[in-house]
């Protein structure tokens, strides 16, 4: 593509060399530079891409986009100085791939919990209604029928535009995408045009990256602040930070809620392990999803579908046919009548939501056993909080390993234990080996008891010492039940 076309709407502060060039590819990793490519020098947390400009040129890069011009200028190379390489990259990538986000309706969902569920539900609803769609989520990327394993909640902006361009090419009308706080701060959604932005909730998470809750809130809010006036912003009015998201947005404002007045209002009429009877805007329907947190997820998906012009009755019929999202409140019932719930809940709020949902369903004659841990190399401040929640809201909590990564699993467990209140000391035990912890839960459980295995959900690995080992909670439960004859 001609360089001049790629540079449309990008403020260039200084140009050295000719703009009459063809660009074969855009890269921000010098190792991926090829003949005729454009290399964007990004300032990362670990390395500065400006140090690798010559390396990119050696591999064939003919255009360099940077914030500081290098001391050595090579005659046949074009150098473009910009104020912010990271922001420029988004617009360069969008232009290079023909601005695909303008050619389909792109819907972004952000918040601490529920992003994967809402985007996956929307993808399934719209496919059910006969619309070709794309999905970009933590679990997987889907372009029409093609499934691509996921690498990040929000992929880099080049990869995003590649996938969106492919979605346009195969005739997709809609793309549903999780928007993470990391992705917002690192400009991974720069240059994209969102038709709708949805906000689920905001609770304690990712403070290892954002450092303070205010920074985390600001990151989410930035997504709404930067929406165009043609966009629609839908927020959770029951969340204390929900309306904060709308404060400076130019987008049309909409709300959803279970507790307060809102554009999209819902009520939970009945719920059990098989599903819920819900009422959305005075229409009753049944869903196999369960738990109050899922009522919020469904309500946001419903609101987005209606704002996209879908027929309300058809949307509710499609919701009634939905299956549970992989690793989100998935249930397994053993032959002996023990209920297992496998859920991805790995934040204090998510764990509390799942435990509260189970406690609303159970009659209190059954015991509730919670197996959980916390990930290593992540926000440490949530560990004691999760220890407190699990022991307060379960009959027995079994603290174990999640993905310890490069941390000592025993140290993580100690930090979780620090949050247990003295009156709950008798309600927990610690077993570092996750398989043994699940085994202990099965051994302890009697018919009708409920075992929540939380934290990993859809994941099929355990990261120990930086090495990924195969581990699947659902598979492990089924194997142990067979082995133990339960």
Give a concise summary.
Pathway: Cell wall biogenesis; peptidoglycan biosynthesis. The protein has about 475 residues and is an alpha/beta fold.
Outline the structure in words.
By secondary structure, this protein is of the alpha/beta class. The protein is built from 16 helices and 24 strands. The strands form four sheets. The protein has an eleven-stranded mixed beta sheet, with helices on both faces. Strands 17-18-22-19-20-21 form a six-stranded mixed beta sheet, sandwiched between helices. The protein folds into three domains: 94 residues, Udp-n-acetylmuramoylalanyl-d-glutamate--2,6- Diaminopimelate Ligase, Chain: A, domain 1 (3-Layer(aba) Sandwich); 221 residues, 3-Layer(aba) Sandwich (UDP-N-acetylmuramoyl-L-alanine:D-glutamate ligase); 155 residues, Protein-Tyrosine Phosphatase, Chain A. It is globular, with a radius of gyration of 24 Å.
């Amino acid at each position: 593509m001609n360089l001049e076309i790629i540079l449309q709407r990008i403020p260039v502060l200084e140009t050295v060399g000719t703009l009459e060039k063809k660009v074969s590819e855009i890269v921000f990793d010098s190792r991926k530079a090829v003949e005729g490519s454009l290399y964007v020098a990004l300032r990362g947390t670990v390395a500065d891409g400006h140090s690798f400009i010559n390396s990119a040129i050696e591999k064939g890069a003919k255009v360099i986009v940077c914030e500081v011009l290098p001391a050595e200028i090579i005659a046949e190379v074009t150098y473009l100085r910009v104020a912010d390489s990271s922001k420029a990259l988004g617009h360069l990538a969008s232009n290079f791939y023909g601005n695909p986000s303008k050619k389909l309706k792109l819907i972004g969902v952000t918040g601490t919990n529920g992003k994967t569920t809402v985007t996956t539900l929307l993808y399934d609803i719209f496919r059910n209604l006969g619309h070709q769609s794309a999905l970009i989520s933590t679990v997987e990327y889907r372009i029409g029928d093609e499934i691509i394993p996921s690498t990040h909640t929000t992929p880099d902006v080049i990869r995003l535009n590649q996938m969106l361009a492919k979605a346009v090419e195969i005739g997709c009308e809609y793309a549903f995408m999780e928007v993470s706080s990391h992705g917002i701060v690192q400009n991974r959604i720069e240059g994209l045009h969102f038709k709708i932005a949805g906000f689920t909730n905001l609770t304690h998470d990712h403070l290892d990256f954002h450092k303070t809750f205010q920074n985390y809130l600001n990151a989410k809010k930035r997504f709404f602040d930067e929406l165009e006036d043609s966009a629609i912003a839908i927020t959770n009015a029951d969340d204390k930070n929900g309306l904060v998201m709308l404060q400076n947005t130019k987008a049309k404002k909409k709300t959803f809620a279970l507790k307060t007045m809102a554009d999209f209002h819902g009520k939970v009429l009945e719920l059990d392990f098989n599903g819920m009877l819900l009422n959305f805007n005075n229409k009753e329907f049944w869903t196999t999803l369960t738990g109050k947190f899922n009522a919020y997820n469904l309500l946001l998906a419903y609101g987005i579908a209606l704002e996209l012009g879908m027929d309300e009755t058809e949307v509710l019929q499609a919701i009634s046919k939905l299956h549970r999202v992989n690793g989100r409140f998935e249930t397994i019932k053993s032959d002996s009548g023990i209920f297992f719930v496998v859920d991805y809940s790995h934040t204090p709020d998510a764990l509390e939501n799942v435990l509260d949902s189970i406690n609303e369903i159970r009659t209190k004659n059954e015991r509730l056993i919670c197996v959980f841990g916390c990930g290593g190399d992540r926000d440490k401040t949530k560990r004691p909080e999760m220890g407190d929640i699990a022991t307060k809201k379960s009959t027995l909590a079994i603290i174990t390993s999640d993905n310890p990564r490069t941390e000592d699993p025993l140290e993580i467990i100690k930090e979780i234990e620090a949050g247990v209140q003295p009156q709950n000391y008798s309600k927990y035990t610690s077993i570092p080996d996750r398989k043994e912890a699940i085994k202990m839960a099965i051994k302890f459980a009697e018919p009708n008891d409920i075992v929540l295995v939380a934290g990993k959900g859809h994941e099929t690995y355990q990261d120990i010492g930086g090495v990924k080992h195969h581990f699947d909670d659902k598979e492990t439960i089924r194997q142990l039940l067979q082995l133990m004859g339960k």
